Structures are given as C-alpha cells and as structure tokens.
C-alpha cells in the first residue's frame, strides 16, 4: 500500500512538473520594473510625444523611430531638466530619479508597445531572458542573420525587423 501511494505521488508530481507552462520562470524579468517610467510618460509626456512614441506635435522627436535617442543620458537629462524650445522644463515637477526612469522608458517605448501587441498574451507580465546567442544591442541594426527571438512561436515572421530589434532592446534593458 505504501509503495502504491508513493508511485501515485510520483505520478502526480511528474504531471505537475510537465504541466508547468513556463520553463524559464526563474530567470524571468518582471514588467513592473518599468511601470513607474511608463506611468510618468503617459501622464506628463504623451500629450506631445505620443503614447507609443509617435509625436502628437510635429516639433517633437519621434521616439518610436529612435530620434534624438542616440544622444547620451546626460545630454537628454539636461534637456528634460531645463527644457528646450517647446519642450518644458521638468526639474521642479519631477525628482532626479523620476527623470531617469522616464528617460529609460522613452528609450524603450517602441519595444514596450511591440511587447504588449505581440508577446504579452503568451508571456503575461514575465519577460523571458533572451538567448545569449543574439548579437549585442549595438550590433543589431547592422546584423543580417536570423534573430530567432522566440523559438517557441512563429511571431517573428509577422514582425518587421525594426519591431524585432526594438523588442530585443526592450527585453535587454529590463534584464539590466
Ligand atoms: C508641450 C510638449 C512637450 C511635453 C509635454 C514634453 N515634451 Fe519633450 N520635447 C518636446 C519638443 C517640441 C521637443 C524638441 C525640442 C527641440 O526643439 O529641441 C522635445 C524634446 C525632448 C527630448 C529630446 C531632447 C534633446 O536633447 O534632443 C527628450 C528626451 C524629451 N523631449 C523628453 C520628454 C519627457 C521625458 C517628457 C515628460 C516628462 C517630455 N519630453 C514632455 C515637447 C514636449
Ligand atoms: C503563442 C505564444 C507565444 C507568443 C506570441 C510569444 N511567445 Fe515567446 N515563448 C512562448 C513559449 C511557450 C516559450 C517557452 C517557455 C518559456 O521559456 O517561457 C517562449 C519562450 C520565449 C523566450 C525564451 C527563449 C526561447 O526561445 O525559448 C523568449 C526570449 C521569448 N519567448 C520571446 C518572445 C517575444 C519577444 C515575443 C513577442 C515578439 C514572444 N516571445 C511571443 C510562447 C510565445
């Protein structure tokens, strides 16, 4: 009888383990890490810069296309703090930390939008770590090989290269 129970227990455990849907769970990154930056962006910046980084006013740079984002954090933070042309100054409304968080979000806004559209229904709020065989973010735009971001689905075939690169940058930023 004892042995029977043990075998039954083992079977249940095997079914349980096999049925666990996400193998990479431990290494997963939580989307909450960027929630604060996204919230500030939506509240304070999206009127001009757009909820998806595509600007609402022609004078503002297009973050979805990476405009101005090749500048250093220090340069961009300086503009955020003190303003420039139509861009208001934020130093009296946001803390240093909030300005950094919102800038980090502006840098990955397109990847966030792509992740919400293409990946979140399978991955929920857990972002799987990217395969180490992928080229580094800086080399991505000039890289012509296959990127193979999700070996478990075919989503990549429906995506533009720009979208794939932005989602990789997004996941890598979250991983840091
Ligand atoms: C009233 C509209 C408006 C709002 C609100 C606004 N921006 Fe801007 N932003 C602009 C415009 C216009 C520019 C381009 C300024 C120029 O001519 O250089 C700009 C430029 C920028 C740049 C590029 C700076 C550079 O050095 O090239 C960053 C980064 C930026 N905004 C971030 C933000 C963030 C973060 C927020 C919210 C906290 C925000 N903006 C809110 C209009 C706005
Ligand atoms: C149809 C469901 C589905 C969609 C859509 C999907 N994935 Fe996955 N993905 C999975 C499953 C299942 C796994 C394997 C379990 C795991 O590692 O979480 C996986 C694994 C991964 C992994 C781990 C490495 C690997 O290849 O196994 C990465 C990275 C990944 N997905 C990225 C993405 C990205 C980025 C998107 C959106 C562009 C996406 N996935 C869309 C189902 C999906």
Any chance you could write out the topology, listing elements then pairs?
Layout: H1 2-19, E1 29-30, H2 35-49, H3 73-82, H4 96-118, H5 120-123, E2 126-127, H6 137-140, H7 161-175
Antiparallel strand pairs: 1-2
The site of one heme C has 23 residues, from helix 2, helix 3 and helix 4.
Question: How does this structure look, described?
Answer:
The longest helix is centred in the middle third of the chain and has 23 residues. Helix content is 51%, strand content 2%. It has a two-stranded antiparallel sheet. By secondary structure, it is mainly alpha-helical. The termini are far apart. The chain has seven helices and two strands; from the N terminus they run αβααααβαα. The radius of gyration is 21 Å and the shape is globular. It has one domain: Cytochrome Bc1 Complex, Chain D, domain 2 (Orthogonal Bundle). The site of one heme C (HEC) has 23 residues, from helix 2, helix 3 and helix 4. The site of one heme C has 17 residues, from helix 5.
């Amino acid at each position: 009888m004892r042995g029977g129970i043990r075998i039954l227990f083992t079977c249940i455990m095997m079914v349980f383990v096999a049925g666990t849907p996400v193998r990479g769970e431990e290494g997963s990154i939580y989307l909450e890490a960027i929630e604060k930056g996204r919230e500030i962006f939506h509240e304070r910046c999206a009127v001009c810069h757009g909820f998806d980084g595509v600007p609402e006013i022609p004078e503002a740079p297009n973050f979805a296309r990476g405009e101005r984002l090749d500048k250093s954090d220090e340069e961009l933070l300086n503009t955020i703090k003190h303003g420039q042309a139509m861009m208001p100054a934020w130093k009296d409304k946001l803390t240093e930390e909030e300005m950094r968080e919102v800038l980090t979000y502006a840098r990955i806004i397109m990847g966030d939008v792509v992740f919400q559209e293409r990946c979140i229904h399978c991955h929920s709020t857990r972002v799987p770590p990217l395969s180490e065989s992928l080229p580094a973010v800086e080399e991505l735009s000039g890289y012509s090989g296959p990127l193979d971001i999700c070996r478990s689905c075919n989503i990549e075939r429906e995506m533009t290269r720009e979208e794939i690169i932005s989602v990789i940058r997004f996941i890598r930023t979250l991983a840091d």
